[in-house]
Amino acid sequence: MKAVEFRDVTVEYENRIALEDVSFGIERGEFIGIVGSNGSGKTTLLKTILGLVEPAKGEVFILGMDVRTHLKEIREKIGYVPQKTRINPKMPVLVKEVVLMGRYGKIGLFRSPRQKDMEIVKKALEEVDMYDLKDEPFGHLSGGQQQRVYLARALAQESEIMLLDEPTTGLDVSSQRSIIELIARLKEEKDLTVLFVTHDVNSIARVSDRVMYLKNRIVAFGTLEEVCKEEVLRNVYDVPVQVLRSDGMPCVIVSDYHVH
Ligand code: ADP
After folding, report:
1. pLDDT tens for residues 117-145?
2. Which of 76, 122, 157, 244 has the fewest beta carbons closer than 10 A?
3. Which of 16, 47, 195, 201 to mutate to test the pocket of ligand 1 (most atoms within 8 A of CB)?
């Protein structure tokens, strides 16, 4: 059984096609990088997995369940880490409360959390190394710390599949690296399936099992060695691309968009 399977999926908004004839399968336990420029359908792909948009055509199965008929069960299996969001620093929600939100699907909104939920929250915060800041207002944390807390929220949900939508965009390079390494480590420890959306394939080169290049269709899907070739990437970006090697890995250099 695949963790995620798309069969000939087309998603349209009004008359704009966001995804066209997309078919692929992701095995359980894989780390998949999803790469493409703005508007290439990356967020739409995640929304389709979560059942937030309905395909005009095709079928989507998550852990063998059809999204059209098993949405509630599917959502319980999926943790979602959003893009770095600007949170009002005065927003009074505490770090531990953000993580507890990951338990709502299991607790139900109107019941009180039990000891077990609180223990799961504690463990999730420890796993992302944020337990010491549990009583801080969420809005006081740095961008990198906030992303760690969102990761803890997804862990507290005890999900099997983790969707991350550009979780490191806007963070400094060392915070980016430490979050990506953390996600890769948690993936190994918990046998998670990870779909990681990014603009920057180089940032996930070391941790991804396969990379999917999107341009409203799948342009390429394979290991880094298979897809990071100039003749493949020429079809992905509309600007010149060079593939170099660094530390034995392909490294993609995309020309500066502003040069033209
Ligand atoms: P990405 O995440 O790669 O930037 P998206 O999945 O957000 O791409 O968008 C894919 C295409 O669908 C884009 O052309 C975008 O303008 C369009 N689109 C996305 N969301 C909507 C929406 N809610 N209504 C209309 N068009 C949308």
Report:
1. 999 999 999 999 999 999 999 988 988 89
2. 244
3. 16
